[in-house]
Amino acid sequence: MNRTTNYNLCQFEETDRVRRTDFNEDNAKIDAAVKAVDRRVDGLEASKADKTALAAVEGKISRIVTGTYAGTGGSSGVRRISLPGRPKLVLIRTDYPNTSHHDEAIAITDICLCRCHTYHSLSVDPPTSGYALENNGFTVPANCDQNYSGSTQHYMAII
User: Where in the chain are the domains?
Assistant: First the structure.
């Protein structure tokens, strides 16, 4: 009796004695091979489902972007900061060099602008105060503390 190359299954010839055990052994080999392929397919499908689920979640997770910019000052220097997407929230902390100004932090959202001074005052302004969130960044108006000439602004944006 000859055997197949890949799975060593029986290949009967005319003069071979056919036995039931030969068929049972071959069926067991075929069953095991099909099950192995089935497991591999299940694994690939699970992997693809995991990647699809991950891609869906990645689109919903916010990213945090940080950076600095230098204030330009004056009435003509509106400052635009580019980001890799539309921010949901921008926090800016102002450092004034060699001045008696108090440090200040602000939070910009589409709903309001919040200011917090180091001397513990807090104000909330409408979003029309010149600060704006845009599709790929944010803008800071010309004459404001976050654009003070020579100052370094530290920002954190949630995108």
Answer: 2-58, 64-158
Residues 10 and 142: their CA atoms lie apart, in Å, by: 87
Residues with Cβ within 8 Å of residue 71, at least 6 apart in sequence: 79, 94, 146, 147, 148, 149, 150, 151, 152, 153
CB 155 within 8 A of CB 69: yes
SS3 101: coil
User: pLDDT tens across 117-133, in order?
Assistant: 655 556 666 555 678 88
Answering whether pTM is above 0.70, one says no
Distances (CA, A) of 51 to 43, 56, 57, 58, 80: 12, 9, 10, 10, 36
The pLDDT tens digits for 14-55 are 888 888 888 788 888 888 888 888 888 777 777 777 788 777
Q: Is 153 within 8 Å of 93 (Cβ atoms)? A: yes
Report angle CA 155, 158, 159 to the nearest 5 degrees. 120
Q: Identify which of 25, 4, 5, 155 has the alpha carbon closest to the alpha carbon of residue 80.
A: 155
With the CA atoms of 42, 48, 54 and 60 taken in that order, what torsion angle do they form, in degrees rounded to the nearest 10? -120
Assigned CATH for 64-158: 2.60.40
